[in-house]
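pasting for ref. prot 1 ->
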Amino acid sequence: LLQENFIRRQIVESCTEIRSKSFLNENDVFDLIEEHSKIYGEVINSVLLKNYNSVGSIHENLIKQHILTSDGANYSGVPTELKLVDNLTNGWQKSDLIILAGRPAMGKTSCAIVFALNPAITHNVPVAFFSLEMSSEQVVSRMQSILTEIDVSRLVKKQLKGYEIVELEKNAKVLSEAPIYIDDTPSISILELKSKARQLVREQGVRILIVDYLQLMSTSKNYDNMVNQVTEISRSLKALAKEFD
């Protein structure tokens, strides 16, 4: 919005200046047109990022990546530690948008939490988890349940016996230093998510961003059906994935 308003202001100033010169009738009309076009070009170039790359530089970079993963010991992406998934994807790849879909109560959130836990604990990969449905405490309770096999409902309700608390502290100790960052803002918008994601990538080096779940996000427009809303959110999330790599 700031950039658009800046361009608008520059257009107004440019048009005012060209208008004055045109009335004076002292300049060649084609010089005025060229000057006008030059001003527009400079204004647009000042706010647009140059995001083109040469084929040669991309080619050389890909060769280096192939060398790093040629022995099969390293994944080209972020591994999930689930062998069947990693063999299929070679780890989650940069700039990808992955949709984890399923019917209600099939374990989508639990699966997403595993996708967050394994890279963070095993490979120290920073992960951001945006939970729109559950509180941050409920998310961490599920993590504790996965690591200890204690029933999650008893963890949420704080119904553990003394020896179970000792077991919890011992088996889930890795959570104390796990680079997982949870945001439980309800109905978060794409703009707010993007702002927080930028901060997490810059300050914490986050490489995976999980949103649970997509339909609960809010949009700037009011859509008459869920399909259009989900399409818009998916498109925005894909753009976000590409921007932050």
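and prot 2 ->
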Amino acid sequence: MPTEARTRPSPAAAFALGDFRRLFAGVTTSQLGDQFALIATPWLVLQLTGDPLALGLVLALEGGPRAVFMLIGGAVTDRCSPRLVLFVSDIARLILAGLLALAVLGGDVEMWMVYAFALGFGLIAGFAVPAGNSIVPMVVRADDLEAGNAMVMGGGQLVGFIGPFAAGVIIGKFSASLFGVGLAFGIDALTFAVSALMLWRMRTGGALSPRMTATGEPIGASVMSGLAYVLRDETMRVTLLIIAAVNLLFIGPITVGIPVLADQRLPEGAV
């Protein structure tokens, strides 16, 4: 019996959509800025304090709230609009990164500012990450979802290679001062401005006006039901434990250890 031909996922079909092109440009650009901050933040802490413990505290202030508030951010995104959540998140991160860049370039930066920056970024990321994960299905057709996700993830992998290299070169070029670090944070702020502009120009992905969608249960109840589902499902429970172990025992020490090694042992420093 003849069977209906299935439409193959096509990157070209997804990229033909204007809103997907804007989303891809915005997300990829902001991810590039994230890579600049990824290099600049540890380098700034080590230049100010030389203390690996201070660096670990900064990373904990960013990572802890992000992990906790992603639960709330997912519930808010379900009720609101992924596009609105991302837009507000980009504006907030633009302000934070811009203020820190001005403080560094002006020579007025202090460690409490870095702590506040890390905490603020972690809180905002708790809302931005689930919104970013849920917006692609609202922009592309179901047949093109696989290709759309692949393109967004591929763009992230590409800038994850280019961004740290470029940031290290910029910071290393001005190794005698913190000008390169301030410039890196300035670039990070600029990328969030580009991302916010792309979201503003989109027409799909939800409205930019704060319209809450009725879901039948409070945000707290949604968070608890999500946690309960993960704990009941053996596969998801084991996956969660593996991810937690990898982050605690591998990603954490590497994230702190490599900047310290570069600062104390490697002659090229940030480069």
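The two ends are 63 Å apart (CA to CA).
Residues 18-49 form the longest helix (32 residues).
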